[in-house]
């Protein structure tokens, strides 16, 4: 390599210290004759790869926050330990991405200053550990939470245009140290190879919008109506889930449907409960410690009424919103009991809100009796049957005969040649934008669950989904418009301007560095 251009000795020393862990001035480096070797270059490439790897994981970590409450519940069921693991995830990811980013910036600055890239062995070990941790995280995600890969595909529809601009900007800035490297190396073959790789990458990026599609690239007048909101177990960010308080908070959020889960007690009283055990959402371990591990259906209604179904919400704080509750809401939450289906139907009737529910557990030996008992309570409640949305598949034909006015919701996609007018309830990962549009045209109502993040709600809104089930009704209620909506002509203009500006800056970088 040729001798590098002059660089402030103090600046060079400050860069070398954290990167090489040595207090050596630039002049001393020159006297020693130290240069960046091929071995050093390989470690720089490894550093760059680890940075990209952690950056991709950061993107995934932000995406899976929409579903992280499910992960918290899973850990509690397995380990009986409640913690908001999303904070652990974000803090660990921030540490990894910050570390690799700082090292990469130091390396690029050293290259611009003409200093050797002598990465210290401690950094090498830490980079290897970083790569292993991120690889383990991706592996665990693929094994235990594979549906999140589909979430990533959907997220690209929301972020694709902006990711493209960001990546083009990052690669454009990379042209400065790249030009410095090109002009300093004597190897013609290496110069040609690096330039070809960089040019191929930039051409691919400049043409990437040809393959980017998003339902939110449309004209304003093409935007479908805002999806209706379905409260997932009520409003669980504002009140203990599956309680009367949660239903009332959901009504305040303008939700049209209260989604819940129903079980039947040992003495035949349908009540609201999601988990098969009572340990997560009640104080059953304090009241009935010897029976805490039993199925919820093993308790009679008298026993269930002795349980506190609200204090756990204030103690464990399943969502950050719990901290901002008013004193009155805290008092009301602490007084919540397990409600019966009869009480909930009466509240739904008074609030003019529909109720959609699953009947659990589906594999119970007395499930047919559960269906009959639940139907009996619905028919006796006096609620208009069109406000009852029936999810369970078991004995559905019997339900249609006994309560013909009940609306039936199917947890599957439509069958071939099936008549229009269906109501479907599916995970948001299972429906593409194209399918949602087609179902809308065929007069098939689609509800997708569970949608908490505004970016995801925006994509589904642009796609034309009928409704979404959400934990964050208070957030989605305030959205009057998707986060972004771009006419195709505007997006085309942005694309061309970004590419042209990037190209000019790259040319400028190579001219100035020469």
From TrEMBL:
GO biological process, any: lipid metabolic process
Domain GP-PDE: 227-480
PROSITE patterns: GP_PDE
Membrane-spanning ranges: 41-65, 85-113, 125-143, 163-183, 190-212, 492-513
Lipid bilayer topology: Multi-pass membrane protein
Keywords assigned: Glycoprotein, Hydrolase, Membrane, Transmembrane, Transmembrane helix
GO cellular component: plasma membrane
Superkingdom classification of source: Eukaryota
Keyword Transferase: no
Location within or outside the cell: Membrane
Principal location listed in the UniProt entry: membrane
Gene Ontology MF, one: glycerophosphodiester phosphodiesterase activity
Keyword Transmembrane: yes
Family per record: Belongs to the glycerophosphoryl diester phosphodiesterase family.
Protein's name according to its UniProt entry: GDPD2 inositolphosphodiesterase
